[in-house]
UniProtKB/TrEMBL annotation:
It comes from Geodia barretti. Residues 1-29 form the signal peptide. It holds the Pfam family SRCR. It is found in: Membrane. This is Deleted in malignant brain tumors 1 protein. Keywords: Disulfide bond, Glycoprotein, Membrane, Repeat, Signal, Transmembrane, Transmembrane helix. GO terms for cellular component: membrane.
Length: 722
């Protein structure tokens, strides 16, 4: 399998210039300024960044460093801290955007609460500079943070406030317009559009004090309106004396930026003057580093020497995603933190690293009491949280798996890595499920990345991969240059209006057999009867076989997370008692979901249902080139052919290129992209045979200096007229 991945056809392009509608994920809102993550293989936590402006979705691009843009986008989406930049060109993993570029040359500070609050430059850019983000899903809310939950749009919902490390629903007799606007401004919007009572709300409630400070004018943070917020009582109910939960709708207008100030995580965080149990502070007059002190049983105590796990939790509690240095008081580099020991005792913390507050850790009293092992840490605002995951190399929901057990990412060994571990990893990264595990993979070269020195044993129910049990690895099991694990996740079962699945059928049904796992691939069902559920609560049903052809099978397999199909067949519907929900499904091959294909709803049961076999071919990025020459050897040990029919990969299909406008300049670009020198010759009359696909790339005209044939001027992929 690894030799296939290194084969010549997997030559990654620098750029891509076709437009196509890709799979869109997490589409909660279509209001001005809302964000979404899109692209092939996008998940709930990662994808190409798009913003809704002027009545349409468009991409966000920039010539400048996008690290802080990523931080702001993940925060605005409510997806926690960022994981980091998408390795390599975003167009390879999620596909280039199409249509409008809504924001160009964006630059953020990092603590902005809305992307539109960032600096929008004047330099123009194209889709090759579209920004993609990867979010961790690990939330570390600050004290006094506001969020909206349960709304149909990201900009509306029931108001909740994080106070005393707990999310509570606002409960009051009224929410003044000024307070509602302050809540919206703390979320990065410019105004509150509406305020109304919310019903059928359960959970923890927070009774707000009077908001008279905001009855006339508004502030960027609610603490300016509610100076006594920290003393607000909590309650398991919100009833009596006219009390109610409240829902607000926020809006944003660029014309109001000049006279409406937005809050920030730095400005709006509430700091108590009275210590609370398990509160943490860094002593030394620096917000991001100092001696660690914890308030326990009514007194401040210094924390004894910390492991990476404890240092991570402390920084998360202080609002930082991670730490980058942990020392003790005996270290000679602590000259700027030369502090007297605080009166009181020392404590020892024991954390897993996944907690967001030390109250979830265990404590003990150390034997040493002379403060020589007092802990000092340096927190980082730019590192990703402990236990973050990335997929690198490959494309879409497939790639080599990396985990961040400390402050950097490490490869995982394929020894003992099973589908149980893959299920946990895929869910953590926002995908619906795991499809397979691939051993001996080497898809990408990350400088200075090392191999994780232990393996993980999961039950399959854990929320985070690093929550699984750890077991030691014997060194000979894992070689630094070979034994890496890659996984393929399935994303589409949680997106779109329909749910799709494959149900294995019995061999005597004349359908597709559920075969055993092949080679080094292990995973779930990849062949069987296609079943759909048109909406939640309805029964699953089959797809009638009439008019369901190869390209419809291709779309169904893509929706299930595979790259394409290998066969399609029909089985008699009798005996299985499965009704046909759909009929006359006729896809073009470029749809993201079966929902988007022309179809009809079945009014009567059909005689035959569709079965498909999804391909084991690993996902590959759009825009690769290959030369197909049936007269040449196809052995992977042989050098790639230097002549043949030119084909381009797009949306999981290999397509021939129309030759009407093809020129010597286009041939030069193609050969350079294939890492050959200039071509000796080319022909445009199918001299190496016609392509087998009924889809082809349109006519392309190149200047000769393009880095990819897809940078040339041309048409979109289209059906070939037969």
């Amino acid at each position: 399998m690894s030799s296939l991945l290194n084969h010549w056809q997997f030559v990654f392009l620098v750029s891509l210039s076709l437009s196509l509608t890709f799979l869109h994920v997490k589409v909660l809102a279509q209001r001005e300024g809302d964000l979404r993550l899109a692209g092939y293989g996008a998940s709930r936590l990662a994808g190409r960044l798009e913003i809704f402006l002027g009545g349409e979705w468009g991409t966000v691009c920039s010539h400048r460093d996008t690290l802080d843009v990523t931080k702001v986008a993940c925060r605005q989406l409510g997806l926690g801290h960022f994981v980091g930049h998408v390795p390599g060109s975003s167009s390879l993993r999620y596909g280039l955007g199409n249509g409008a570029i809504s924001l160009e040359d964006v630059s953020c500070r990092g603590d902005d609460l809305h992307l539109l609050r960032c600096d929008i430059g004047s330099a123009s850019c194209d889709h090759h500079m579209d920004i993609s983000v990867m979010c961790s899903g690990i939330l570390t809310p600050y004290e006094g943070e506001v969020r909206l939950v349960g709304g149909a749009y990201a900009s509306e919902g029931v108001v909740q406030i994080n106070l005393h490390h707990t999310w509570s629903t606002v409960c009051s007799t009224d929410v003044e317009p000024g307070l509602a606007t302050s809540m919206c401004r703390q979320l990065g919007y410019t105004r509150a559009l509406s305020v109304q009572q919310a019903t059928n709300v359960t959970g923890q409630f927070l009774e707000l004090p009077s908001s008279s400070h905001c009855s006339i004018s508004s502030y960027p943070c609610i603490q300016s309106c509610l100076p006594d917020l920290l003393s607000s009582p909590s309650s398991p109910s919100c009833s009596g004396d006219g009390l109610s939960a409240w829902s607000i709708t926020c809006g944003i207008s660029e014309s109001e930026f000049g006279n409406a100030t937005s809050g920030s995580t730095t400005d709006c965080a509430i700091h108590s003057t009275q210590a609370e149990e398990y509160e943490v502070r860094l002593h030394g007059n620096h917000p991001d580093h100092g001696r660690v002190e914890v308030y326990v049983e009514g007194q401040w105590s210094t924390a004894q020497e910390l492991r990476d796990e404890e240092a991570t939790v402390i920084c998360k509690q202080l609002g930082f995603p991670n730490f980058y240095l942990s020392l003790t008081s005996s270290d000679s580099s602590l000259t700027d933190l030369d502090l007297e020991p605080v009166p009181g005792s020392q404590i020892r913390l024991f954390c897993t690293g996944l907690e967001t507050h030390v109250n979830g850790c265990s404590f003990s009293s150390p034997d040493v009491t002379d403060h020589t092992t007092d802990a000092y840490i340096y927190c980082s605002p730019i590192l990703w949280p402990f236990g973050s995951l990335q997929l690198v190399g490959g494309a879409g929901p497939f790639g080599q798996l990396l985990v961040s057990p400390k402050r950097d990412f490490q490869w995982l060994c394929d020894a003992h890595f099973t589908m149980a571990e893959a299920e946990v990893a895929c869910r953590q990264m926002g995908y619906a499920n795991a499809i397979r595990v691939v051993e001996n993979s080497l898809l990408s070269d990350i400088p200075n990345a090392s191999l994780l020195h232990y393996s993980l044993l999961c039950s399959g129910d854990e929320d985070y991969l690093m929550a699984c049990q750890r077991r030691s690895l014997v060194n000979e099991y894992c070689r630094d240059d070979l034994d890496f694990v890659a996984i393929q996740c399935g994303s589409s079962s949680s997106t779109g209006g329909w749910r799709v699945r494959l149900t294995p059928v019995a061999a005597d049904n004349d359908g597709v057999h559920n075969d055993s796992h092949r080679g080094n691939v292990s995973g779930g069902v990849r062949e069987g009867r296609v079943e759909v559920r048109l909406e939640e609560g309805r029964e699953w049903g089959g797809v009638c076989a009439d008019e369901f052809l190869d390209l419809s099978a291709h779309v169904a397999c893509r929706q299930l997370g595979f790259e394409t199909y290998s066969s399609v067949a029909a089985v008699e519907s009798g005996g299985d008692d499965v009704a046909g929900h759909l009929t006359s499904v006729q896809c073009t091959g470029f749809e993201d979901l079966l929902d988007y294909c022309p179809h009809s709803l079945a009014t009567t049961n059909c005689s035959h249902l569709v079965t498909i076999n999804c391909s084991d071919i690993l996902p590959f990025p759009d825009g690769l080139l290959r030369l197909v020459n049936t007269s040449s050897s196809t052995s992977l040990q042989d050098p790639p052919p230097s002549e043949g029919r030119l084909e381009v990969s797009y949306h999981g299909l290999w397509m021939s290129v129309c030759g009407r406008l093809f020129s010597q300049e286009a041939a030069n670009v193609a050969c350079r992209q294939l890492r050959f020198e200039a071509p000796a010759n080319y022909c445009i009359n199918a001299c190496f045979g016609q392509g087998t696909s009924d889809i082809h790339f349109g006519e392309y005209s190149c200047h000769g200096n393009e880095s990819s044939i897809l940078d040339c001027w041309g048409q979109h992929p289209q059906q070939r007229v037969l």
